[in-house]
Amino acid sequence: MDKVIIVKDLSLSYSNSETIINTVNFSVDSGSFVFITGASGSGKSTLLKSFFGALKPKQGSLVVGGVELNNVSRSKLNFLRRHIGVVFQDYKLVQEWNIEKNIMLPLLINGYIKSVAQNQVDKLLKHVRLNHQAGKYPQELSGGEQQRVAMARALSHNPILILADEPTGNLDDYSSELIWKLLEGANEQLKTTVIVVTHHIPETLSVNYKHYHIEYGSINEVN
């Protein structure tokens, strides 16, 4: 099985502060579902940031989607990001754009023609049960609804990899269940690799998954 992420002796830190992730080694199989857990401040989100190039390795090697991220060029990083969907805990929606336009953004960046992009957005809005809200703006929606928009945006361009940072941390039960179903569906039906950083793995999940736990800068697989 191909590896979508290969981590070798990786250390991460912010500027000259203390090392948060310290000389870790692991890999992620293409098409797998992975949970990364750990206490607050353990480095879960830091590790996730490194996977889409928002934080460069301090030491060691990090390869994502065949792209070496240690000294990656801006053009190569942009190319890689076109194949990644990211779901942030605080949604990161563009406040000045309506829901439809927020979801369409990755499609336009990836060169989809407008009619195809529109068709994909319409399908996704139904999928996240927000087709009646297409013209509304983020601030007009609840937190759960905004996260469902963020989820639709992450799925819109059929990425090879979805990175989700506490995707249900602040959500009501209805939205949480919907988010988990969308992530499971992407993994099972589209064979998308899914990596979720979370405090709590849901018990209702039907997909097979790997579980890594971060503690004191190290990452270990939990069986």
The chain-level mean pLDDT equals: 93
Structural class: alpha/beta
Number of strands: 10
Low-confidence stretches: none
Portion in helices: 25-40%
- The H-and-E topology, N to C, reads as EEEHEEHEHHHEHEEE
Describe the secondary-structure layout.
Layout: E1 3-12, E2 21-29, E3 33-38, H1 44-51, E4 59-64, E5 67-68, H2 74-81, E6 84-87, H3 99-109, H4 114-127, H5 143-155, E7 161-165, H6 173-190, E8 193-197, E9 210-215, E10 218-222
Parallel strand pairs: 3-8, 3-9, 6-7, 7-8
Antiparallel strand pairs: 1-2, 1-4, 4-5, 9-10
Notes on the structure:
This protein has 223 residues and is of the alpha/beta class. The chain is 32% helix and 26% strand. It has six helices and ten strands, in the order E-E-E-H-E-E-H-E-H-H-H-E-H-E-E-E. The protein has helices at 44-51, 74-81, 99-109, 114-127, 143-155, 173-190, and strands spanning 3-12, 21-29, 33-38, 59-64, 67-68, 84-87, 161-165, 193-197, 210-215, 218-222. The strands form two sheets. The protein has a six-stranded mixed beta sheet, with helices on both faces. Strands 2-1-4-5 form a four-stranded antiparallel beta sheet, with helices on one face. Strand 7, helix 6 and strand 8 form a beta-alpha-beta unit. Helix 3 (99-109) runs parallel beside helix 5 (143-155) and helix 4 (114-127) packs across helix 5. It is globular. The two termini are 20 Å apart. 39% of the residues are buried.
